[in-house]
């Protein structure tokens, strides 16, 4: 069976010029922008990707079309935005076939009604594999698919001659990366005990390459790494534990070991191209489907790393599932020996561009394709020209609870033009109106300062582009949920405890304490360096000491030894308060306990500043004033 899968491509349609370049598209899963040595990581060891980078164009402004996997995968294969195909969430492993664009019905706990993503890539769309196969290329898909299962929706239905190890129902390597594999159903696809799935796939890809040396080939090498579950060889994890710096942003030994496994598989694939003598005639693309998992894994094997963030995308904000840069800006390397000069390319590039770009590079006809949303980026890769005017990401999913742990995981649409990025967060304001955030990425890559108030004309221009994009793609647009029960008492970024009620009113966070343990918590603090200064205007008719807590990414919750206490007057008059928070590294959350009894409290002009005195976050922001 295996030999048949590897050889069946030799009988493809027609004759083709064997001198045409091969294409190997390597896609990592959940790999972050700063995870690799070529992108600045000082902890992770990725020597094979470092060698690939030395002979590649290294893109620094490359974006996945979505902060989650399936939508980006569909954009690569079709050249269409997820907003157009309707696959906007990673739900293609689900049993139900849902092929209609629509809003989900929602529930009273949701401020916004979000999209109900399609669960299959519609058969009406032509894929890259279809185009290459029709041109006489041998085609093979290795690894994760996650674009649908069942008749008509699997890789061999969409232009691929081979699908190895055939796991269309798998959202990830369920049960673990090391053989025996629980998520691989076909008995013929079995590795040696302890063998890593991606390294095993590299071996099978090598066999496919050897079998098709007489004709050009197109390979999807879509790895399972470095998606959860969080496991790796224990000895490899231990090696990275010895070199981890507890103060560094990237310090998770288990994740570093997972990256090492991934890098080893890429090295084996490159070696297979060299061994077959086809490396000089092969276009190699290496990238990721979305940003890195910048949050604690919660469950690991071996245990002991559950509360250490898997990675950090700094200086980018947030990570996987976020509309901020950490969710979609990812590494991308493009190698073509003799045709592309190695170096750094700072040009906008989207995952929807691969269809137009790869067919142009290989001169494969795509006349039968009705349309794509991508642009041909060959002039950018070969000459350094800017080819894309604007770049869009539409992510109509997320909500309040999830955003507390993953900043930016709220339904939204973003546009990038020049240095400017606008995010339209749907129903995000207290009154369920849309919230706009405008950033200049040239001066503020970490998206720490919303320039909406300072640049209203630019915001209006970019918001108009978003509206045109949504109309053109027929996007499902989230909207305010009329049944939302929490619309009136909501307090924006600040979430009250059970003993407090909070609402923004006239630019002040107005709280009513019922006694017990009243407090409010704000999460999603942009990355910065302390010690910090927290200033605010305090007014209260309650009594007792007040306390401010902070939380780092390593903390499971708020702790007394990570707090400062102050004693307000509680006399019903405004009083300025300025507190020093003695923490050096980034913090992810703040908690304010204003009193220890019943009463009314008002907090205004809340400002968090870093060690240089720069404002990291402020409340209220311009949108509330």
What does this structure look like?
With 625 residues, the protein is α+β, with helices and mostly antiparallel strands. It folds into two domains: 2-10 and 22-393, 3-Layer(aba) Sandwich (Alkaline Phosphatase, subunit A), CATH 3.40.720; 494-624, Sandwich (Jelly Rolls). Helix content is 20%, strand content 23%. It contains 13 helices and 29 strands. The strands form seven sheets. The protein has an eight-stranded mixed beta sheet, sandwiched between helices. Strands 20, 21, 23, 26, 28 and 29 form a six-stranded antiparallel beta sheet that branches. A hairpin with a 2-residue loop joins strand 20 and strand 21. Helix 2 (47-54) crosses helix 8. The chain starts with a helix and ends in a 6-residue tail after the last strand.
